[in-house]
Write a structure and sequence with these properties.
By secondary structure, this protein is an alpha/beta fold. Helix content is about 30%, strand content about 20%. A 6-stranded parallel sheet has the order 3-2-1-4-7-8, sandwiched between helices. The protein has a two-stranded antiparallel sheet with strand order 5-6. The longest helix has 18 residues. The termini are far apart.
């Protein structure tokens, strides 16, 4: 059996989200970009350490809007992936047209083929494509596999709460929307970690008592 993998799933980190007003006027999590860079560097470093035994990888998902006026329409410059998250050789890029990264794509089969044990999700936006994809990842059991004893290893879906962000909407500020959506996912659909905890997990494994159970560290 091929070795299981830890996969960083980066969702919709595209230039179009730089639009000053299309998504909202204020965004949550000013550290989003820096944390994405940190996660990418960590997963790529881990992959380089085991080039002949793939245990870590990165998969990119981009949104191709069907709305001609959208900054994420494929005809727009905003469709491009942000330079700081640009894929390198060997990193798959999945193109989706709806909120979920699994609908109309081969993401599910790709992850199951890789025998993913820990799916680490980051990107944009918390309340739309991140939430939808995390929920479906759990419902599709993409981290569950039969082991050599014909027993199910469940694995885990992990949302990195300081490596996702959203915008203000309908009178609610961006930080509130962000925190509420993270809280709705916690425990039932995924585990919640911050970037520092993911780095520790990659290096040493993550003790259960260090997995975040609240949004206390998001300020």
């Amino acid at each position: 059996m091929a070795p299981s993998q830890d996969i960083l799933l980066l969702i919709d980190i595209q230039v179009g989200f730089d639009h000053p007003t299309y998504w909202g006027t204020r965004r949550s999590n000013p550290s989003f970009e820096a944390n994405i860079v940190t996660l990418l560097e960590a997963f790529r470093k881990a992959a380089r350490q085991h080039p002949d035994l793939p245990t870590h990888g990165v998969v990119h998902v981009t949104h191709s809007s069907t709305e001609p006026c959208s900054p994420l329409h494929p005809s727009s410059d905003g469709f491009a992936i942000q330079p700081y998250a640009k894929p390198i050789n060997g990193e798959p890029v999945i193109v989706k047209h709806v909120n979920s990264g699994f609908i109309g794509t081969d993401l599910e089969s790709l992850l199951k083929k890789k025998l993913v044990r820990r799916l680490v999700i980051a990107g944009l936006t918390t309340d739309h494509c991140i939430s939808t994809t995390a929920r479906m990842a759990a419902n599709l059991f993409v981290t569950s596999h039969l082991n050599e004893n014909r027993e199910i290893d469940e694995g885990s879906v992990i949302l990195v709460e300081d490596a996702t962000a959203t915008w203000d909407r309908d009178g609610f500020d961006a930080e509130t929307i962000h925190k509420v959506n993270v809280a709705s996912l916690r425990g039932e659909f995924c585990e919640i970690m911050n970037t520092s905890q993911v780095l520790k997990m990659l290096s040493f494994g993550a003790p259960e008592d260090e997995i975040m159970t609240g949004a206390d560290e998001m300020s």
